[in-house]
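Q: For a teaching handout, I want to show students what a protein-ligand complex looks like in token form. Below are the inputs, and the small molecule is KG4. Please produce the holo structure.
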Amino acid sequence: STNCYLLAIESSCDDTAAAILHNDKVLSNVVATQEIHEQYGGVVPELASRAHQQNIVPVVTAALRKANIDKKELSAIAFTSGPGLLGSLLVGTSFAKSLALGLNIPLIDVNHMQAHILAHFIDEDGYEKPSFPFLAMTISGGHTQIVRVDSYFQMSVIGETIDDAVGEAFDKSAKLLGLPYPGGPLIDKWAAKGNPKTFPFTRPKVEGLNFSFSGLKTQIMYFMQKQIQQNPNFIEENIADICASIQYTIVGILMDKIKKAVKQTGITQVAIGGGVSANKGIRHALKEAEKNMGWKTYLPKFEYTTDNAAMIGIVGYLKYREELVEKNNYVDTGVQAQ
Ligand code: KG4
Ligand code: ZN
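A: Here is the structure, written as tokens, with KG4 included.
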């Protein structure tokens, strides 16, 4: 059996994150969220890279300290090689490469989207690991995919968005309502107090297992403009019902496709991952499907939904264990920008 102490680094977007794992258990999981982007209403790549440069050493130091591990005890280092923002990825990549070279330990590159899926294999009390094959729906600010997972490293994308990601749909809708970035969690919060059937938005018609969200954003924009013309306080007076209606529509779009995927593949095990898997609407809808349709669903622990390094660590560990890494060898792992 392996005895692996692993440092994982994630810097693909606007969170600088580091985690320490002992095999498949998380000893520490530190995230520095960059607040600088809030005032711009979205992630500014150049500012993100600069903030990663400032955060990377303190975040890694904090992760080691919280795990009570000295860097000399590390067996390997895993880092996000992509997809993501080039400047952001480079900070984590360069740091990981240098440290692995200095410590003479293996360096393991990890795909961010694979990590959102394999986060389900972190050993956590009260959380069951999926068995193969299962379907994973990765729903984040950058991606929306349905993936057929046959083993840890055999995955195939069977459906994806043809335009915006679902997280973008949440964030852009929130922006139209004057909510700060990232607005997804705020829509979720307001939705809990509203009636989802108040404003019926239409779902797009998209072939197969693919998604489209850009039409919804436009639909919401025209709807708001029209309502505000009649009542300038429309948003303030109806914020809960608007958020509930938007969330109901988005969750409906996701559920339609995952139901179709289950039907097509005959696989009734469904896992979700990515920032939007924190959403109460989608969590509730999946639990309902479990009850009514006999599915088995896997919802990640909240701290592993949005970007984090623990999920990078579990992929690193699984690769290390399967010896997909050349031990004590410098591996030139390139960065794959989005
Ligand atoms: O996975 P993630 O942290 O970063 C990417 O890889 O993109 O996902 C961030 C996205 C944002 O769009 C954010 O608004 C959304 O996840 N999000 C949510 C919720 N929590 C985060 N969307 C809806 N409801 C939530 N509770
Ligand atoms: Zn992500």
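A: Two things your students might notice: Residues 13, 140-142, 167, 170-171, 182, 184-185, 188, 274-276, 278-279, 306-307 surround KG4 (ligand 1) (CB under 6 Å). The longest helix spans residues 234-265.
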